[in-house]
């Protein structure tokens, strides 16, 4: 069983909104763009991963362009972030929290869609991770910085774990909502622990990270 129907749509749109907030706040904080740039970057962050997933699955046109709700939710998220950017900037970790939430929801819905369209278990896990990290990667490239997935505290690893849990739950015929929430919870927990304790995936020995630490796993 996979996370389809109303449950899948709600999770997908929630992730879209969270990632749109994240992308727009990143634009405000790092690029100092105007309203067009802020909303555009928010929409790209929210929709990019899903478009990549659907193209890889041959599910054309991508859901973004066949269901108006994705575009509307992404645009609203970008506008909310633009309008409330000053208030959100006062919070200590708004971008991190929105990013972790979007990553978690997209990892499980991406994996579920892969299973729904006939992908194997391993391929579905990869598709879940691509859905989670794709939009943020495009965002980072557009603002000319190294993508978060390549440099940040555990990022791709949580997405893979969350998608893996969702796929295992689906194969075990666990209730779709329960399986999806379990996968999202695992991804969210690992991502936030990685940020909180500055845990990193291994890098070459002796190399320095942005935080000045050497290439070792925290």
Compile the SSE list and pairings.
Blueprint: H1 5-31, H2 35-57, H3 63-66, H4 68-83, H5 85-89, H6 94-116, H7 121-142, H8 148-151, H9 156-171, H10 176-196
Short summary:
This protein has 218 residues and is mostly helical.
Q: Main traits of this protein?
A:
218 residues; mainly alpha; 10 helices; transmembrane helix; membrane; Gly_transporter; cell membrane; transmembrane
Question: Could you characterize what this model shows?
Answer:
This protein is mainly α. It has one domain. The chain has ten helices and no strands. The protein has helices at 5-31, 35-57, 63-66, 68-83, 85-89, 94-116, 121-142, 148-151, 156-171, 176-196. Helix 1 crosses helix 2 (35-57) and helix 6 runs parallel beside helix 9 (156-171). Mean pLDDT is 85; it is low at 211-218.
Uncertain residue segments: 211-218
The rounded distance between the terminal residues' Cα atoms is: 36 Å
- Structural class estimated from helices and strands: mainly alpha
Give the strand content. Answer: under 5%
Number of domains: 1
Number of β-strand runs: 0
Q: List the secondary-structure elements in sequence, H or E.
A: HHHHHHHHHH
* Major beta-sheet overview: none
Rg result: 17 Å
Shape: globular
Oligomer: single chain
What count of helical segments does DSSP give?
A: 10
């Amino acid at each position: 069983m996979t996370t389809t129907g109303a449950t899948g749509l709600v999770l997908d749109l929630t992730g879209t909104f969270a990632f749109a907030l994240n992308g727009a706040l990143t634009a405000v904080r790092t690029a100092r763009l105007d309203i067009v740039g802020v909303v555009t970057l928010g929409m790209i962050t929210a929709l990019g991963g899903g478009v990549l997933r659907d193209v890889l699955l041959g599910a054309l046109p991508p859901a973004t362009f066949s269901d108006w709700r994705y575009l509307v939710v992404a645009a609203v998220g970008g506008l909310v972030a633009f309008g409330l950017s000053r208030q959100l900037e006062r919070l200590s970790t708004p971008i991190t929290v929105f990013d972790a939430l979007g990553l978690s929801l997209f990892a499980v819905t991406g994996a579920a869609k892969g299973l729904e369209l006939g992908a194997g278990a391993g391929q579905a896990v990869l598709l879940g991770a691509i859905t989670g990290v794709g939009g943020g990667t495009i965002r980072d490239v557009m603002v000319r910085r190294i993508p978060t997935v390549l440099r940040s505290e555990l990022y791709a690893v949580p997405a893979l774990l969350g998608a893996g849990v969702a796929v295992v739950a689906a194969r075990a015929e666990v209730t779709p909502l329960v399986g999806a929430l379990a996968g999202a919870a695992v991804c969210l927990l690992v991502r936030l622990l990685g940020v909180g304790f500055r845990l990193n995936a291994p890098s070459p020995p002796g190399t320095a990270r942005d935080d000045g630490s050497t290439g070792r796993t925290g």
